[in-house]
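Worked example 2:
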Amino acid sequence: MHSDGRRTPAEIAAAARAAGLDFINSAEHNTHSAHGAWEGLWGDDLLIMVGEEVTTRTGHVLAVGTDPGTFVDWRYRARDRRFGRYAEVIRRAGGLVVPAHPHATCAGCAWKFGFGEADAVEVWNGPHTADDEVALAAWDAALTARRGGGWLPAIASSDAHREPDRVGSPQTVVLAEELSREAILAGLRAGRSYLAESSAVALSLVVSGPRGQRAGIGERLRTARADDPVTVRLEVSGAPGRTAHLVTDQGTVHTVVLPDSATGAVEWTTSAARSAYVRAEVRHPPAVPGLPGAPAGLTNPVWLGGGDGE
């Protein structure tokens, strides 16, 4: 509304509620002027956070959940080596630094600053396209590279500017303790989240150890020995007949077609010696032969082992 959008805040809030969302983050391009326009549109059923889509000359970055009134400058490019100071502005304002559509093909859209300052990365932006698939593959490839030194959670955004853009498709589902800015940002930062094409899709990914240990999305399961067997269980609802994939640092290791019923489950056994992490993808049938189908849902990883090379 205050940059290139064509919906009013009231229309966006109504669309968010209709889509079954519990929270949204509003991020106008290079301005904070809309922050005050959300007054009175939130409620117990809808948390509204604000930020900015910092549209630099060599990539866009989302300032997610900053203090209202926070402005982040955008007038620089990667070769200027100035991004670190603006990332710090976002964090001092309580927000997260999230590179948006990092492999987009429009001029100035692809992210050129590296990910050393990022708190998360957007791997699914609006209707699924080839650049989202590239972003997902690049994110997955970086998971093991960052192991032991922290890892970068994935998020999805609907990036809905105007009709017919669908608010909440896709969305990030945060496994938060409560509906508050602090809890949502903590869940995003920790990777306690999964990505879904709509609120109809629900995913649960839990890994259980031989002595009753359990870890969920974004958590780590530690076992006494690296070769102790652990059980991976994925539960899916809202994606009948879709294909579920379990993915580790070795790639896709287990694939199952889900039943046509409302819910389905997948189980698989591995160990920390075999898998650094496990994550899940639930996909539609391929629309183009030889290419993956669009996702219905994706999870952040469950980590296995002690994190120090085990």
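The domain at 9-196 is CATH 3.20.20.140 (TIM Barrel). The first helix runs from residue 9 to 18.
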